[in-house]
Amino acid sequence: xxxxxxxxxxxxxxxxxxxxxxxxxxxxxxxxxxxxxxxxxxxxxxxxxxxxxxxxxxxxxxxxxxxxxxxxxxxxxxxxxxxxxxxxxxxxxxxxxxxxxxxxxxxxxxxxxxxxxxxxxxxxxxxxxxxxxxxxxxxxxxxxxxxxxxxxxxxxxxxxxxxxxxxxxxxxxxxxxxxxxxxxxxxxxxxxxxxxxxxxxxxxxxxxxxxxxxxxxxxxxxxxxxxxxxxxxxxxxxxxxxxxxxxxxxxxxxxxxxxxxxxxxxxxxxxxxxxxxxxxxxxxxxxxxxxx
Length: 292
Ligand code: C2E
Ligand code: MG
Ligand code: MG
Ligand code: MG
Known about the structure:
Layout: H1 2-36, E1 40-49, E2 55-66, E3 70-72, H2 78-81, H3 86-107, E4 114-118, H4 129-139, E5 147-152, H5 153-158, H6 160-173, E6 176-182, H7 189-194, E7 199-202, H8 204-207, H9 214-229, E8 233-236, H10 242-250, E9 255-256, H11 267-276
Parallel strand pairs: 2-4, 4-5, 5-6, 6-7, 7-8, 8-9
Antiparallel strand pairs: 1-2, 1-9, 2-3
Helix pairs in contact: 1-3, 3-4, 4-6
The structure holds ligand C2E and magnesium ion (3 copies).
Residues 59, 118, 150, 180 line the site of one magnesium ion.
């Protein structure tokens, strides 16, 4: 019987693997068509300064409106294509569309806001990346510092030597770089020292526990101080309550992003709110604490 059980476990395992492989293949094949048929879009989530709550920029987060499968969130397709060429196509789309969004922001008088886009570390090894960024900046006449390229700590550490030289070239263009999901990627301080980044984003897994868990409290305050001592700016991700926000402001974290202010929204809604808050630029708090 033990043998049988073992065998059926094995079968389940391979079936799951097969399904994942199929899914991966399907996504890789679909993505070209998805771009062509405009099934991809970017949602925007505001990033505000602390403690005043003024909007400083947005993060662009990809969405896939699949004709048969409906809305697909990035967590359900980005990891599957991260090591294939399709991730470059997605990144190129995100840069093109991100540039167009920045151009519309500038056109409407919001030239001081920045846009953060997410790129996979693999993209930093693509020789087409730097010419593309250069072309987009000049095509839309975008001040380079308005474009922030996010890369996760985990992926950049796996590819640090290769990513480093293109990061340096991007810095020469005046574009800014953020290390995303900081704290989840096992990077050593010697890597951190080498990477030419401007912004450090503290992952939600630390900020969410900042008031309940003293370990998280210490990690967050220490990371903020470390970043500041290196001359970098800090964004706290996943801020959901006013109390978290107050804590981070007191710890001198300068920027915050999270459901407290807004979930990712479509561009039209973002512009509607921008027009409403034109006077003081303070982004309205959307969802008050919903503690489970
Ligand atoms: P990320 O870059 O760390 O983005 C933040 C994620 O946290 C987003 O999920 C956002 O909706 C979510 N979030 C923001 N505030 C809160 C909050 O207060 N509470 C909670 N529970 N969640 C919050 P999303 O849009 O599903 O994206 C997931 C991840 O997918 C992103 O994490 C990023 O790593 C990746 N991703 C998104 N767009 C792209 C893209 O265009 N290219 C690449 N390569 N990756 C992308
Ligand atoms: Mg990000
Ligand atoms: Mg993140
Ligand atoms: Mg993330």
